[in-house]
Amino acid sequence: MNELLRERIVRKLDALGDDRLYQVLDYVEFLASKYAERQSPPSNVFQRFAETVEDSLRAGRVPTTAIAETMNLMNRAMGVLSGVAAAGKSVATDLVDTTVERTNGRDRRD
Question: Which among 37, 56, 57, 104 has the fewest CB atoms less than 10 Å away?
Answer without folding.
Answer: 37
